[in-house]
Write a structure and sequence with these properties.
Elements: H1 5-14, E1 18-23, E2 35-40, E3 46-51, H2 54-70, H3 79-103
Antiparallel strand pairs: 1-2, 2-3
Amino acid sequence: MTLREDEIEALVKFDRSSLTVVKYDDLTTTAGQPYVAIIKMVDGRAFAGNGDSRITAVRAAWETYQRFMNAPIQSRHNGYWLYENALANVELQRITNQTEKQHD
């Protein structure tokens, strides 16, 4: 079953997490994919997904988030998930920087 963006956002909010979607300008795109979606959990963990459209980015972040939630608890602290969290935090920092530049 393929979920719509509003359905994914509702599920994310149900988990007390948040969903952010941003479209980068041409100078800051990630691998030619202008959209990035980030799901941020209450505990600070974050999962990012990039895409050529808004829904593609949202679904990519959702898939990563779901893999994490379905992973055994003891494996949630391994290097793979630390890497995924770091990638998402880099994207969050890029969003913050882009927002600050727009307000200058």
